[in-house]
């Protein structure tokens, strides 16, 4: 088994509708494009969109979004199919084409905004959301997506002001009220967040998004028992008289899994993450939590496809690249591991654990493409030293950084000593007493000194030739 995965990714629980799915329209297939699994007309505003295998990859906006036709409809179908497959570039192209072909409809603009946000172009995404609710003034999902995009990019005050203004115009909207509750929760105004979410439930007792916001706010406030109580009401209920409100809710399963994981209840956490991932493979937080737990268990084989999918759906997520890089390391793919870990640092230069993982990669990999053994050892030392500096000397109990750094330094010294050692002496000539002429000596193939017949690769220091299974090999 390879060295256990060190999980250092930071997660956010402030997940907005914009990062959870796409707006769809109630249309059928056309041309040669396979049909997207759109909701039926009774899905209702904000209803979940079911994709093949039960995965929920979007939300339905209800009335006013079903007017696309012709080339706009075809482009939207192609784009939506690309989205479900994690092809964000294809989705971006298709939704842009749909918006250009029929610019008076909001749906393509909202969906394009979702894709742009996943691709890291937040200002362009926000502009598309604005266009969507400008074209359709009651497009509440686009309003919420716009506000939460602002909030998630450090503009909480602007998000609050925007939603407060919208709520004054739509005072009986449970959706706008819930979006505002979410922003208040992110601002740590937990009392107001709870009150707004309860108001949303009074407007619509079955508004499940408000129920999840209540649980999420309790989690943010570290009121774990209240969070679990709210999640139980959503997922399990309290007997025949109080059935579960939405037992398949992916966000609720994700949140409960996070709570269980913090409590050390790994089996329960894993079960919730599995459900959340199955329901919503585009829900990146679920993918990362599930992949991380499998890596921690040494199961890189199962973690790898989950994390590869996470990177497809969130190519700008440093955490996704970080975890995928470690999965590649455990699978014995050092070139791919190096690429992903360097990409994680390119996206988030303060991600100290990426330096730890790179140091480990250079230390244990038999060969990293494009690097000599001496270059690997020197880079391993550099990465561990950088990690120590970034941590400021503050390490968790049982941290092995110092031991690994000493191993890297010992390996470097061993390589230098091997390079400085004189070449082995040639074997002595045949005894003069034999009088045999030089031409009569045995052929080199049969009489060459033993030292000259040893393959060059066997002269490598023992530490560099250690089986990869001890530190960097594929996990079972």
- Output the structural class: mainly alpha
Computed over alpha carbons, the radius of gyration is: 29 Å
Q: What share of the residues lie within helices?
A: 55-70%
Rounded to the nearest angstrom, the distance between the terminal CA atoms is: 6 Å
Categorize the overall geometry. Answer: globular
| CATH architecture field of the domain at 1-153 | Alpha Horseshoe
- Secondary structure tally, helices: 21
Strand order of the largest sheet: 1-3-2
Give a short account of the largest sheet. 3 strands, mixed
SSE order, as H and E? EEEHHHHHHHHHHHHHHHHHHHHH
CATH superfamily of the domain at 1-153: Tetratricopeptide repeat domain
Low-confidence stretches: 1-66, 429-476
Number-wise, the strands total 3
Structure characterization notes:
This protein is mainly alpha-helical and 476 residues long. Among the domains are: 153 residues, Tetratricopeptide repeat domain (Serine Threonine Protein Phosphatase 5, Tetratricopeptide repeat); 112 residues, Serine Threonine Protein Phosphatase 5, Tetratricopeptide repeat (Alpha Horseshoe), CATH 1.25.40. Helices cover 58% and strands 2% of the residues. It contains 21 helices and three strands. It has a three-stranded mixed sheet with strand order 1-3-2. α7 packs antiparallel against α8 and α12 packs antiparallel against α13. The chain is globular, with a radius of gyration of 29 Å. The N terminus and C terminus are likely disordered.
What's the short story on this structure?
This protein is mostly helical and 476 residues long. The protein has helices spanning 70-84, 88-101, 107-118, 122-135, 140-152, 156-169, 174-186, 190-203, 208-220, 224-235, 250-262, 266-279, 284-296, 300-313, 318-330, 334-347, 352-364, 373-391, 401-420, 444-447, 450-453, and strands spanning 22-24, 48-50, 56-60. Among the domains are: 1-153, Tetratricopeptide repeat domain (Serine Threonine Protein Phosphatase 5, Tetratricopeptide repeat, Alpha Horseshoe), CATH 1.25.40.10; 319-419 and 466-476, Tetratricopeptide repeat domain (Serine Threonine Protein Phosphatase 5, Tetratricopeptide repeat).
């Amino acid at each position: 088994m390879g060295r256990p995965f060190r999980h250092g990714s930071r997660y956010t629980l402030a997940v907005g509708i914009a990062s959870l799915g796409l707006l769809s329209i109630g249309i059928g297939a056309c041309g040669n494009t396979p049909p997207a699994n759109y909701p039926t007309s009774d899905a209702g505003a904000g209803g979940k969109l079911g994709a093949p295998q039960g995965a929920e990859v979007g939300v339905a906006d209800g009335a006013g979004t079903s007017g696309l036709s012709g080339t706009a409809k075809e482009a939207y179908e192609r784009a939506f199919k690309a989205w479900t497959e994690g092809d964000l570039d294809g989705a971006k192209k298709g939704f842009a084409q749909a918006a250009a072909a029929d610019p008076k409809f909001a749906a393509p603009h909202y969906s394009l905004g979702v894709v742009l946000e996943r691709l890291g172009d937040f200002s362009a995404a926000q502009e598309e959301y604005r266009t969507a609710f400008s074209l359709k003034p009651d497009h509440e999902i686009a309003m919420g997506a716009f506000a939460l995009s602002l909030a998630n990019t450090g503009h909480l005050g602007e998000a609050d002001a925007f939603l407060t203004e919208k709520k004054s115009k739509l005072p009986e909207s449970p959706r706008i009220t819930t979006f505002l509750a979410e922003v208040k929760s992110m601002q740590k105004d937990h009392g107001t967040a709870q009150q707004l979410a309860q108001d949303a439930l009074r407007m619509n007792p079955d508004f499940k998004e408000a129920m999840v916001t209540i649980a999420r706010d309790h989690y943010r406030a570290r009121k774990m028992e209240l969070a679990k109580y709210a999640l139980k009401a959503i997922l399990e209920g309290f007997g025949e008289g109080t059935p579960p409100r939405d037992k398949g809710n992916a966000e609720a399963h994700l949140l409960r899994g996070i709570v269980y994981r913090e409590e050390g209840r790994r089996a329960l956490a894993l079960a919730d993450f599995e459900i959340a991932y199955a329901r919503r493979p585009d829900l990146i937080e679920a993918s990362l939590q599930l992949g991380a737990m499998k890596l921690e268990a040494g199961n890189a084989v199962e973690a790898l496809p989950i994390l590869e999918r996470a990177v497809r759906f969130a190519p700008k997520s440093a955490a996704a690249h970080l975890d995928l890089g470690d999965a590649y390391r455990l699978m014995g793919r050092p070139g791919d591991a190096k690429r992903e870990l360097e990409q994680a640092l390119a996206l988030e230069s303060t991600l100290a654990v990426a330096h730890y993982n790179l140091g480990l990669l250079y230390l244990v990999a038999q060969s990293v493409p494009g690097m000599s053994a001496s270059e690997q050892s020197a880079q391993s030392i550099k990465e561990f030293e950088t990690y120590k500096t970034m941590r400021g000397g503050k390490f968790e109990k049982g941290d092995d950084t110092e031991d690994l750094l000493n191993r890297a330094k010992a390996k470097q010294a061993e390589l230098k000593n091997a390079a400085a050692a004189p070449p082995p002496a040639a074997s002595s000539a045949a005894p003069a007493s034999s009088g045999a002429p030089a031409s009569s000596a045995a052929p080199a193939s049969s009489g060459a000194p033993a030292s000259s017949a040893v393959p060059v690769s066997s002269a490598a220091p023992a530490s560099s030739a250690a089986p990869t299974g001890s530190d960097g090999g594929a996990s079972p």
